[in-house]
Amino acid sequence: MNYLKRFWSWLFKTLKQYWDLMLGKTTIDDKVIETYNEVKDKVEDVIEDVQERVNEVKEEWQDVVEAVKEVSDQAGDVVKAAKKGKKRRGRPRKK
């Protein structure tokens, strides 16, 4: 009878240790999956932010290119006016 008590005690302890081991691994796996999902969401948010910034920079760069073209056209007009223009008369002399 004493052997049966020891056997059941040993079996109970062994099963409890195995159960705790499996439960511990499951918890770790769940934590890893949860952390992975959180990091994945954060990375996706950062990627979206970066893409929005890149698009905004592209639009601003296009505006700058247009402005530079306009300035170069204006500079050309100034040069043409300086070459072909008539002299300014200025104020007429008083007699």
Structure description:
The chain has 95 residues and is mainly alpha-helical. Helix content is 87%, strand content 0%. The chain has 1 helix and no strands. It has one helix at residues 2-84. It is rod-shaped, with a radius of gyration of 41 Å. The N and C termini lie far apart (144 Å). The mean pLDDT is 83.
| Overall number of strands | 0
Summarize the amount of helix as a percent range: over 70%
- Overall 3D geometry? rod-shaped
Radius of gyration: 41 Å
| Broad structural category | mainly alpha
The CA-CA distance between the termini, in Å, is 144 Å
Measured by DSSP, the beta-strand proportion falls in under 5%
Along the chain, the helix and strand elements come as H
**Number of helical elements:** 1
Main β sheet profile:
none
Uncertain residue segments: none
Average pLDDT reading: 83
Compile the SSE list and pairings:
Layout (H helix, E strand, L loop, with lengths): L1 H83 L11
Which tags fit this structure?
single chain, 95 residues, mainly alpha, 87% helix
Write a short abstract of this structure.
It is built from 1 helix and no strands.
